[in-house]
Amino acid sequence: MHRGIFITLEGVEGCGKTTQMSLLAKYLKNKGFNVLVTREPGGTKIGDEIRKILLNPDSKEMDYRTETLLYTASRAQHVSEVIAPSLEEGKVVLCDRYIDSTLAYQGFGRGLSLNKLIDVSRWATCDINPHLTILLFFPTEDGLKRATSKEADRIEQEDIEFHRRVQDGFLKLARLYSERYQIVDAAGSQEEVHERIIKVLEEFL
Ligand code: T5A
After folding, report:
1. How far, in Å, from the CA of 124 to the mean position of ligand 1?
2. Overall number of domains in the chain
3. 11 CA distance to ligand 1 centroid (A)?
4. Domain residue limits at 150
């Protein structure tokens, strides 16, 4: 039994997760919580190496199953080295993307079997699931524009139809896992979005 609180942020490219994660961490720390901020793929030394392979625009020939297993391998390491111990210590773990990204991108985006992805994810994470998942809803095209203002990575380079399937996928997941999902409108200023997230959080805590 873990004592901490596990919160994930999800959404399409450029929806503002990273920005909101740091505002949320600051808010929770001011409230006296012991907060750990992390992200996927990555979050560990091994995971960061895997991340480089996954996002490298030159890895064009990567098979979708290879892609899935690399994201999942990064996650297995992340859970065993960082997430599970932090939850055991009673921390609030804020994670930028988790299993739902695999379901949205590799499941809905790539068209791989959701049931198989759920099985492999459950195995890799020892069934450690978020208590709360905040889905930042932001228009797909606008998010891509924001995200690709820097050089686009391998996934960002996918066509718009792929990213639309991912967006639809997240909305379907929000319905499927409605007990832990909260959808937050990510349009507006950073402060406005932060206020919406705080409202959700206050109700959750
Ligand atoms: N992936 C990931 C999978 O396919 N399967 C998986 O299992 C997992 C875990 C990760 C990629 O891997 C895929 C998904 C991704 O394609 P990444 O670089 O971590 O790659 O990509 P993202 O998580 O999408 O991170 P981004 O940085 O691209 O987007 P964020 O974090 O949503 O957005 P953020 O906060 O960095 O903001 C983007 C820009 O917008 C501005 C920010 O300043 C920044 O410049 N911004 C705003 N501007 C105006 N108003 C606001 N309210 C703003 N909020 C942010």
Report:
1. 24
2. 1
3. 8
4. 5-204
